[in-house]
Design goal:
Distance between the termini: 62 Å
Order of helices and strands: HHHHH
Number of domains: 1
Structural class: mainly alpha
Strand content: under 5%
Largest sheet: none
Radius of gyration: 21 Å
Length: 149
């Protein structure tokens, strides 16, 4: 392995590797091992690339579920309570504040372990993801309520 700094990836290379992570993780793992000039680490690179892909796909599923739920709640609120500018503003504000709370509360290096799966790290991740989903739900609900019939 070489200690010389790696040149930054161009934007087009970043897009290419991101797409390949989703459709061909083995090619990305191979490229990572080649970059480090160490073919023995390809299995570990493949594990990491698959973790990235799994996280991306799970987050897409959570995002879509949150968007659908927020939309349905907003439409239901409109049907039950009618137009209400104050409630819509309050929900939008609450959504933004919860997203800010999640961002400001998340811990990083100060709790980081080598494996990244200690109980405090998992709790931190759960809190961050839960607050992010809640903030997004409130924001989508406010928009859905605001559009009217």
């Amino acid at each position: 392995m070489s200690d010389e700094p790696k040149p930054p990836l161009s934007f087009s290379r970043k897009v290419l590797y991101a797409a390949l992570t989703l459709v061909s993780p083995r090619r990305v793992a191979s490229a990572a091992a080649d970059e480090l000039r160490n073919p023995k680490i390809e299995p570990e690179m493949l594990r990491r690339v698959k973790a990235i892909r799994r996280g991306f796909l799970q987050s897409v599923a959570w995002m879509l579920a949150t968007a659908v739920l927020g939309y349905c709640f907003g439409r239901a609120a409109f049907r039950l309570f009618g137009p209400n500018d104050f409630a819509v503003l309050a929900l939008a504000t609450a959504g933004g504040l919860v997203l800010l709370w999640a961002t400001m509360a998340v811990q990083g290096w100060n709790i980081q372990s080598m494996e990244g799966n200690t109980l405090p790290e998992r709790i931190n991740q759960w809190i961050y993801r839960s607050l992010t989903l809640l903030g997004t739900l409130l924001a989508v609900m406010s928009g859905s309520w605001a559009i009217g019939p």
